[in-house]
Amino acid sequence: MKDISETRARLKGIFNITVTPFSKDGAIDRAGLSRSIERVIGLGFDGVLIGGTYGEFPAMSTEERADVFRHVMDVIGDRVPVMLCSAHSDVRVVRDLTKLAGDLGGLPMVTPPYVSEVTDGQIVSFFRDMAPLSKTGILVYNAPGIGITLSPTLLEQLADIDNVAGIKQGDLNPTAIDQIANRLGGRLRLFCASDLAFLGPVMAGFDGISSTNSCALPELILATYRALEKGDAAAARDLHQLWYPFRALARKHGQPQTTKAAMNLRGFDGGSVRQPLRDLDEAVHNEISAVLDSLAGDTRTKVTLAA
Fold first, then answer.
1. Of the CATH numbers 3.30.70.1670, 3.40.5.10, 3.20.20.70, 3.90.1150.10, which one belongs to the domain with range 4-251?
2. Which helix (H) or strand (E) holds 48?
3. What is the pLDDT of residues 11-69, one digit of tens each?
């Protein structure tokens, strides 16, 4: 993408939150990352998100993250839009990665500065500082998991900042979703940040979703989103219910550990996690395998298992 106009035109649909595959010794598996990207592009995903929370960016150095940005953009080129997470607790790192992401033709995804007792005014000032650094605009990520939840009122202020292309909404409170969809819809792009609850926001008017589970179940989750996109809410509901057991395991055993384990069981490039996370043990792998076997036995899912 070359500028914010192109970003806003292309920023919609289903984006795969691509996990970062690490070897057992912690090295980044660049070839495996490339294969994961090619898989979801080949299936018809509308875009990818690289280096996000479930991409384990907090466990990566700034240099590693920049290297991953460059590698991914070399692989993808301009085939699909790419969100590149530039979040960090150090504003200097955010500044450098945000500029790099835009220069490479990706869309920097920026969280609020996660420091204690930051005020709304300071958050607005932070985004005003970051937004002009990227020629493609920025995506504001409302990520309650970092300890800061942006209210709909504050998001309206951020939407007025020049060069903000969209919002990725992680706060799934129905009232917040309703306010954001109806106050900000059409002004900028709205993305739902959740696998477990994207049906409601999309029906409310959101422009797209980002999905981690789609690394493990790309065919099923793509089919679910496409049904919703076509207005077939009943089919989308039924498909979404099919992978509830997998979502339950992810909540029980953690992300991206569960997704990576399922990818590996399917012959995909999940790889290992980095500390402080831990790879799942054999007993949990057996639980995940049972869920995958069940999904593979249902013709609606199009899920196949490794030979």
1. 3.20.20.70
2. strand 47-50
3. 999 999 999 999 999 999 999 999 999 999 999 999 999 999 899 999 999 999 999 99
- The label of the residue with tokens 């490339």 reads 34
| DSSP H or E run through 85 | strand 82-85
Domain ranges of the chain: 4-251
Question: Quick one: DSSP state of residue 57?
Answer: G
* CA atoms of 123 and 203, how far apart (whole Å): 29
Q: What is the DSSP letter of 15?
A: E
Beta bridge partners of 15: 47, 210
Quote the longest CA-to-CA distance of the chain: 55
Tell whether the torsion through CA atoms of 4, 7, 12 and 18 is positive or negative.
negative
pLDDT per position as a tens digit, 244-265:
999 999 999 999 999 999 999 9
Pair 224, 236: CB distance under 8 Å: yes
Label residues 179-191 b or e (16+ Cβ within 10 Å = b): bbbeebeeebbbb
Picking from 176, 138, 136, the residue whose alpha carbon sits closest to that of residue 156 is 176
Predicted confidence at residue 84, as pLDDT, reads 98
Q: What is the tens place of the pLDDT at every residue in 73-107?
A: 999 999 999 999 999 999 999 999 999 999 999 99
Query: Any idea of the CA torsion for 84, 224, 242, 40, to the nearest 10 degrees?
Result: -40
Q: Does the CA dihedral 273-276-282-283 come out positive or negative?
A: negative
In 3D space, the residue among 39, 3, 37, 55 whose CA is nearest the CA of residue 273 turns out to be 55
Q: Phi/psi at 255 (nearest 5 deg)?
A: -115, 145
